[in-house]
Structures are given as structure tokens and as C-alpha cells.
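FAQ

Q: What does a record look like?
A: Structure on top, sequence underneath. For example:
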């Protein structure tokens, strides 16, 4: 049963052997196709790891980390209320990693100091070892589409992972959770009744700072976040939904006033912040008259689209760079702001929410003529926006993020604009690349392959 109240029983069980016997965890038999992995790396809290690899894997598959609820298991969520993620993996070719808690009550630690610090030595550390293992075993995994989703205790872990590892996860979807850090305790307990009861209220800045403290010194962007909650939830009370929205809008530098509100179903209220398309920067979905029983039928389809798991890549792997001749370079004369328009999508390279924050990752978006879509190519091979910030590659490897950053004259901010429509980094030699055509698709660099998703025009 997907009830976090069992966490409280599990805590009592540590003190009373009779209760512990009631809560002894016995995992059900595993479904065909769900594979147990051992010796996957640093695993300080003895988690189990399971992985699902569909029969047909996409050329550059996404990776979903799917986290179960208290009293749950990998096979329970795989065969139960998370199964829509599995059928979608069969359709879209992405890989799923399923962590499994082994402590009494089968809840994930989102409470102890070790749990609330990047590489702190609790459950989140073990889960990231699973991610690293999957990426090593399947090197074609698209580093820009590593996402996480969870239910109840798994939703709380989803918030924590997104806060601690914002450089790994591009998006997250949490069903019936609490803000990252809300469940913090100092006495070793995994239960925080003040938080579960919805009695912890902070300002957006305080919640944002609490998340930022989990990865001190990080200045990059945070994952897009989708939040779901039932209005009559008494296990993790409904006020936590509003506190989560405070936290994630603050982490993205957004107002708490929705930019978009609608009702996909009569009992649902959906609010979007920042980007207002299917892959909004922050999205909240409130379900009237429903308690602690999410996700309901049909809801995972919305999460799959939000997470970008239904995005399509090329039908075959790109050719290796040695077989592809380098593009000829014929840069336009410097001066004059222009749009950078994708040949495949017809959409513009855009700075989300007209942000001026270093590390903001650029995306595709409908061309609108605003200043956050106007780029000036300089004599120093920079692509400048706002006159002071440059298009910047966060690294030189395949799938490195493309972002804005204060202009500094380094080669990771220099670009060749080529006669074949590609834009290549001077530092890396790799092409600007987008694996999708919709609003919100993020831009990266990747080996040049001559396909339309790597061609752009300046107009």
C-alpha cells in the first residue's frame, strides 16, 4: 500500500521487535525483463538495483530513474502504478533504473544529514552509483535526457536527487512529495511529522537556499520540475505542494505567479511557471478530492511528455566524426542581431524567461523577436545576447550543455558559423545539436553528422 504513514510504523519498529516483525519486507517475484544488478558501485546503505532495458533501445536512449514508495519495491512499482513508464519504454526505447530500499518499511532516507548532501553517503549516493553504472554499461545514453520520477517516499527522493545532482538530471516528476530538505531530522529518525502534516512553511528564498546548500558552490541551472498532489492528502499534507512550488520556482528564478493555468481534466488544476509548453520550467498539477493515492490512471502519460521520454532522436546513430569531413567555414560579417533558427524545427534558440543568470541553458522556442532570441556574431567569433552574455559550451564532450555566460574570450565561447548551416564550437569542433523539435528542447554539442537537427540559419 502506497502510504507513507508506514514510515512512522517502521520507525517505531526499530524500538519494538513485535512491530518490526509486522513490517518485515519480502519482495515479490520479479517480472520478466527486470534484471537485478549487484556490485554497481558505492552503495553505503545497501540498496538493491534493478534495471529494465527494452528489447529495442533507441540510438540515444533517455534514462529514467524510477523510485518506489514506502513499503514498495522495484518489482512492485514496475508491475503496478509505474507500469505505464515501462510500456512507454518499450515504445520509445529508453532505459529504466529502479532503486530498492532494503531497510525495514522500505522507505528512502530523505531525512538524515548524509541524505541531504551531495555524495553524502546515504541512499542518494547509492542511487547515483546506479546512474553511473547504467551510463557505463550503455554509453549511448543521452546525457541530456537523464530524468527521475517517484511516488510518495520516491517523490521526496526525486526532489532530493534533483537538488543534489542538478548537473545530472534534466527533469523530474514527483507524485505526492515534499520540498527537498523538508523531512530533515537530527535524531536519526526518518520521519518528520511537522513536514508530513504540512506545518513547515518557508519563503521561496529559504526553500531555494535549503536546496542550494545540498550542492554548495553550484552555479548552473536546475532540472525542470513537475509536481503532483491530491488536495485531500493527509499522509503528506497538501500544503507541501505549495511549498514545493516555492522551492522550484526560486531555484529557477521565477515568480510564484503562474504564467499559465488550465484544467486538463475537470478535477485537475495545472499551473505552469516560466516556459508554458508541455515541458514547462516548473509545472504543478493539483487533483481535487484525491488523497495519497497518486499516480492515477492516465497521469503518467503527462509525466512522460513532460520528462521528454517520448522525444525522438535520429533513426540511426550519427556517423563517427572521422568519416565526416569538417564543414567549410564562411562566417557572416560581424554586427547586427539575428535569430538562430533550427532547420528541423523552425524554432529559435532562446534564453528561457529572458534570464541573465550565468549557466542558464538555452533551448528551442517559438520565434517571437524578443531580445532573449537576438544573437550578435562578433569579430571574436562570439554569439552574444543582451550585448554582455555569450553562448557558452559547458564542456567539450558529446552532450555537453550549451548555456549563456558572461563573455570571457575563452574558446568555449567561440563558434564557427559554417556554409552548410552548422555552428561548431572552436574548443570542441562539435556541432550545436538538438534532439527534438518542440518548445523547451535543450541545446547541446555533439559530433557533427549532417542531419537537420544540427543545421541553423541566422536571420
Amino acid at each position: 500500500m502506497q502510504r507513507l504513514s508506514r514510515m512512522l510504523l517502521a520507525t517505531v519498529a526499530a524500538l519494538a521487535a513485535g512491530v518490526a516483525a509486522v513490517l518485515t519486507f519480502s519482495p515479490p517475484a520479479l517480472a520478466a525483463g527486470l534484471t537485478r544488478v549487484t556490485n554497481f558501485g558505492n552503495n553505503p546503505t545497501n540498496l538493491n538495483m534493478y534495471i529494465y532495458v527494452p528489447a529495442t533501445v533507441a540510438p540515444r536512449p533517455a534514462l529514467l530513474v524510477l523510485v518506489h514508495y514506502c513499503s514498495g519495491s522495484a518489482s512492485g512499482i514496475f508491475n503496478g502504478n509505474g507500469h505505464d513508464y515501462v510500456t512507454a519504454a518499450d515504445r520509445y526505447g529508453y532505459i529504466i533504473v529502479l532503486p530498492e530500499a532494503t531497510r525495514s518499511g522500505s522507505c528512502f532516507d530523505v531525512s538524515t544529514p548524509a541524505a541531504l548532501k551531495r555524495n553524502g553517503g546515504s541512499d542518494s549516493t547509492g542511487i547515483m552509483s546506479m546512474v553511473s553504472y547504467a551510463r557505463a554499461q550503455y554509453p549511448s545514453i543521452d546525457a541530456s535526457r537523464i530524468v527521475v520520477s517517484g511516488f510518495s517516499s520516491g517523490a521526496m527522493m526525486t526532489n532530493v536527487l534533483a537538488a543534489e545532482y542538478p548537473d545530472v538530471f534534466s527533469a523530474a516528476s514527483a507524485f505526492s512529495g515534499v520540498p527537498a530538505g523538508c523531512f530533515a531530522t537530527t535524531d536519526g529518525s526518518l520521519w518528520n511529522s511537522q513536514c508530513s502534516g504540512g506545518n513547515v512553511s518557508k519563503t521561496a528564498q529559504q526553500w531555494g537556499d535549503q536546496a542550494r546548500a545540498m550542492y554548495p558552490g553550484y552555479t548552473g541551472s536546475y532540472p525542470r520540475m513537475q509536481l503532483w498532489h491530491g488536495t485531500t492528502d493527509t499522509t503528506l499534507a497538501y500544503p507541501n505542494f505549495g511549498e514545493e512550488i516555492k522551492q522550484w520556482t526560486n531555484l529557477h528564478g521565477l515568480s510564484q505567479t503562474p504564467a499559465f493555468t488550465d484544467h486538463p481534466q475537470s478535477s485537475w488544476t495545472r499551473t505552469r511557471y516560466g516556459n508554458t509548453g508541455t515541458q514547462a520550467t516548473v509545472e504543478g498539477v493539483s487533483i481535487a478530492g484525491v488523497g495519497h493515492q497518486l499516480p492515477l490512471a492516465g497521469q503518467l502519460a503527462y509525466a512522460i511528455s513532460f520528462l521528454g521520454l517520448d522525444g525522438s532522436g535520429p533513426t540511426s546513430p550519427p556517423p563517427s566524426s572521422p568519416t565526416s569531413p569538417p564543414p567549410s567555414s564562411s562566417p557572416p560579417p560581424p554586427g547586427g542581431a539575428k535569430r538562430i533558427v533550427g532547420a528541423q524545427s523552425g524554432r529559435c534558440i532562446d534564453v528561457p524567461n529572458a534570464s541573465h543568470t550565468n549557466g542558464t541553458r538555452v533551448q528551442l522556442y517559438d520565434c517571437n523577436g524578443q531580445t532573449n532570441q537576438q544573437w550578435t556574431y562578433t569579430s571574436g567569433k562570439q554569439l552574444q545576447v543582451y550585448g554582455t552574455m555569450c553562448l557558452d559550451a559547458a564542456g567539450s564532450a558529446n552532450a555537453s550543455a550549451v548555456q549563456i555566460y558572461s563573455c570571457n574570450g575563452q574558446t568555449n565561447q567561440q563558434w564557427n558559423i559554417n556554409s552548410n548551416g552548422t555552428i561548431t564550437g572552436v574548443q570542441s569542433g562539435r556541432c550545436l545539436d538538438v534532439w527534438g523539435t518542440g518548445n523547451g528542447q535543450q541545446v547541446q554539442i555533439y559530433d557533427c553528422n549532417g542531419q537537420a537537427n544540427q543545421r541553423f540559419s541566422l536571420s
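Q: Is there anything notable about this one?
A: Residues 1-32, 312-334 have pLDDT under 50 and may be disordered.
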